Amino acid sequence: MRKSRQPKGSWGRRFLIAVPYLWLFVFFLVPFFIVFRISLSQPAIAMPPYTPIFELDAGLSSFVQALKELSLDNYLFLLDDPLYVNAYLSSLLIAAVSTVFTLLVGYPVAYGMARAPTAIRPVLLMMVILPFWTSFLIRVYAWIGILKPEGLLNQFLLFLGVIDQPLVILNTTAAIIIGIVYSYLPFMVLPLYATLEKMDYALVEAAEDLGCTPLAAFWKITLPLSMPGVIAGSMLVFIPAVGEFVIPDLLGGSRTLMIGKTLWNEFFSNHDWPVSSAVAIVLLVVLVVPIAYFQRAQARARERGL
Amino acid sequence: MASLGSTRRSFAPWTDPNAKAYIRFDNVTKRFGDSVVVDNLSLTIYEREFFALLGASGCGKTTLLRMLGGFETPTSGRILLDGQDLAGVPPYRRPVNMMFQSYALFPHMTVEKNIAFGLKQEGMPKAEIAERVRQMLKLVKLEAYADRKPHQLSGGQRQRVALARSLAKRPKVLLLDEPLGALDKKLREETQFELMDLQQDLGLTFIVVTHDQEEAMTMADRIAIMDQGRVMQVATPAEIYEAPVSRFVADFVGSINLLEGTLLEAGRSGARIRDVSGAEFGVTDAGEGQVGQTVWLAVRPEKVRVTRQRPADVRNALEGEVWDIAYLGDMTVYNVKLDDGRLIKASSINSVRAVEDALTWHDRAWVSFAEDAGVVLVR
Fold first, then answer.
1. Which chain B residues are Cβ-neighbours of A305 within 8 angstroms?
2. Cystine design at B157: which of A125, A227, B153, B235 (Cβ 3.0–4.6 Å)?
3. By the 8 A CB rule, do B279 and B259 touch?
4. What is its biological role (chain B) (predicted)?
5. pLDDT value at position B366?
6. Contacts (Cβ under 8 Å, ≥6 apart) of A55
C-alpha cells in the first residue's frame, strides 16, 4: 500500500479537497434541492408562480406544516399525460441514435489522428477544438442555411442530379440528429483519441503477425482496447444530448418532441414551474442510470490496467 | 589448424558451399524519407541457425527484422525465404513469427488466450488449440498462470508468455527483437541458455536483434555486426572476437588495443611492424596488409601481460607506467600509459587470492604480447 507522505491534518490538503466539494455543493446540490422543492409545490398565479412550501425563517412549525402539504401530484401528472412519457422516450431515442452516428463518424477521425505522424497531431487536435471558437448557437443556426429546402445541401444534390426534388430535412428528426452529431463530435473524438493514442501499435502488429488481417486485428485488438474511450465519448454525447434544447428548437421544428423543449415550454409558455421542475428532476433520475454505468465501466477499465 | 574459440556444436552450414540458403537478403535498401536505414545489404541465413544482428541503436538491425516480418517494405532489393520472394506477402501470411521488444501482449486477454490467439486465427479445432496451449505453457513453465492477465505477471513471466505466443504457431522462423532487453541481469543470463535449448530442441531458425554483445556471443551461431545500415562482418562469435575484419568490429566487440604502425615486411615466416613510436613488433600473420602500408595491430587486453621487468622471451614489449587499475573481482584491468602517451589495456585473471608485490599505481611496468596475439587490420 502506498503511504501518504502528507503530514496528518495538513490544512492545505484539506482546503484543496474542500474547494471542489464546496463548488459542487453551492452550484449543484443547493440548486438541485431548490428545484426539487419547487417540484413538490403547486402552481399559483403569483411571483414566483408557485405556492411556497416552507420558508427556512418561519421556524419548525411551518416546516412540519410544509411536510404535510408535500405532494407528488406533479410527478403523477407527468406519468398521466402521454406527452411527457413520449417526450422522454423520443429524447432518449434521438440521443441514442445521434450517439451511434457520432461514434461512427468520430471513431475514424480519432483513429486517423492517433496514427498520424507525431509532428502533425497537435495541428489535427487543434482542428477538432477549433469549432469551439465560434458560438454554439451560431454554428447550429448555420445548419438551417445548409439543410433548408433551398439550402446549400439541396442545391448541391440538385446540381449533381442525385435528386430532382429538394429533400425535406429541416424541421425533422433527421435534422436534429445531424445537428447533434455535428455539435457533439469533438466530445466523442477527444476521449477516443486519448485512448487510441496511448495504445501500443505493436499490439496490432502482433495480431497481424499471428495471422490477423488488418480488419480482424481491428475488431479483436484495437476496438476492445479502445472501449474506455468509446464509453467515455458516448456518455459525453448521450447525456447532454438527451436534455438538448437549442438543437431541436432551431432544427427540429414544432412537431418533434424532445424533453428539453417540453421543459422550456412548461417553464416559459405555461409558467408552470412546479411541473417543469418535476420534468427536470425526472430527467436527472433517468440520466443517473447511464452515468452510473459509465462510472462502473471506468472503474473496471482502471482495474484491468487499461 | 587451431580453431578459434570453442565451438558449441558441429553446425556450420556457412562453410559448406552446397548448403542451401534459407533466408536471403539480396541488395536490400530501406529509406525513410532522406535517411538510408538499411544500405544495399546482402545476407544469407541458414535453416536451424541461431543468428544475431548486433549493433548500436539506429544501425538498422530492427528495420531489417521488421522487413522480414513484413512490417516494413524494402525500398529496393529482395528478401527470400526458402526460395520464395516475400515481396507483397503481408505479415499475416508469412511463416515467420515475431517476439516484440515490448512483448505486445494483449492486455485484455488472459495468458491462455494470448497464446491461443494465433491458433484461433488459423481455424485450428478447439481441442487441438487447448492441447497446444498446454504444451506451450509447459514449455515456458507457466502452467499455473494460464488465467492471469498480462498486468498480473512479472517482467520475466511476460517475456515467457510472449515467447510461447510467438512459438505456438510453430513458425519456420522466429524473429526476436531485443528479447531479453527488459529483464534484469541474472534472469537475462538464465533465459539466454533457455532460448538456446529451446531453439535446439524445436529445430527452428532464430533471428535475434540485440545491442548486447554478450547476449549475441552467448546465444548465436553467427553474428552480423551492423553499422549505419551495413553489415560490417558476419561470422561466428569466436571469429568476430579473435579475427575481426576491421577496427570498427574489433572495437565494437569487447575492448581492444589498436597500435598504429607501418608494415615493414611480410612473409611466410611472419611480418614486422614499426609502430608510431618507433618500436618494432613481430607478428605471425600480416593479414591483408601490404608492405609499406599503414596498418593497425589489434590486441585484446587479456592477451597482454603486465610485468615489472621486460620479459626475456617476448619480442613485443613496451614500457610505461601503471595509470589505472580496475579490480573487477574475477579479473583486474590495468591501464598502462606508455612513455609516448598512448594507453594500453591489459587484463589478467585473478587466479590466486593474494598476490605478492602486486603492481600498483604509478609503478613502472612493461606490457608485452605474443607474436600471434594480435590481428593486423588495414581498415
1. 107, 149, 151
2. B153
3. no
4. Part of the ABC transporter complex PotABCD involved in spermidine/putrescine import. Responsible for energy coupling to the transport system.
5. 85
6. A62
Could you report the average pLDDT of every consecutive run of 10 residues in chain A (306 residues)? 55 87 92 88 74 63 67 83 89 94 96 93 93 90 90 89 85 92 95 93 92 92 92 91 90 84 86 88 86 80 63
Residue B1 is predicted with a pLDDT of 41
Expressed in angstroms, the distance from the first to the final Cα of chain B is: 26
Rounded CA gap, A242 and A259, in Å?
A: 7
Q: Is the pTM of this model over 0.80?
A: no
Strand partners, B226: B55, B231
C-alpha cell at A123: 495541428
Q: Quick check: B19 pLDDT over 50?
A: yes
| Co-location of B200 and B260 in the same domain | no
User: Of the candidates B194, B227, B245, which is a domain's last residue?
Assistant: B245
Q: Are residues B36 and B164 in the same domain?
A: yes
Percent of chain B exceeding pLDDT 70 equals: 98
**Contact predicate A259/A282, CB 8 Å:** no
- Residue B4 maps to a domain: no
Which residues are bridge partners to A243 per DSSP? Answer: none
Say if B327 falls within a structural domain.
yes
Residue of B90, B107, B118 with shortest CB distance to A305: B107
Cβ contact (<8 Å) for B149 and A304?
yes
**Both B228 and B94 in a single domain?**
yes
Q: Quick check: is B189 in a domain?
A: yes
**The CATH number of the domain where B316 resides is what?**
2.40.50.140
CATH code, B179: 3.40.50.300
Are B240 and B112 within one domain? yes
Chain A residues near any Cβ of chain B (below 8 Å): 200, 202-203, 205-213, 216, 220-221, 224-225, 304-306
Domain boundaries, chain A: 74-303
Is B18 exposed, middle or buried (CB count within 10 Å of its CB: 0-12, 13-18, 19+)?
exposed
| Protein fold of A74-303 | MetI-like fold (1.10.3720)
Longest dimension (CA), chain A: 77
Give chain A positions within 8 Å (CB) of B149: 304-305
Tell me which chain A residues have a C-beta less than 8 angstroms from the C-beta of B133: none
B108: nearest CB among A209, A211, A304: A304
Note down the domain range covering B62: 13-245
Average pLDDT, chain A: 86
Residue A142 confidence (pLDDT): 92
B174-202 pLDDT tens trace: 999 988 887 888 888 888 888 888 888 88
Answer whether residue B5 is part of any domain: no
SS3 label, residue A224: helix
Q: How far is A301 from chain B (nearest CA, A)?
A: 10
Nearest CA in chain A to B170: A210
Residue B5's pLDDT is what?
55
The whole-number pLDDT of residue B98 equals 93
* The pLDDT of residue B88 is above 80: yes
The answer to whether B203 touches B189, Cβ cutoff 8 Å, is no
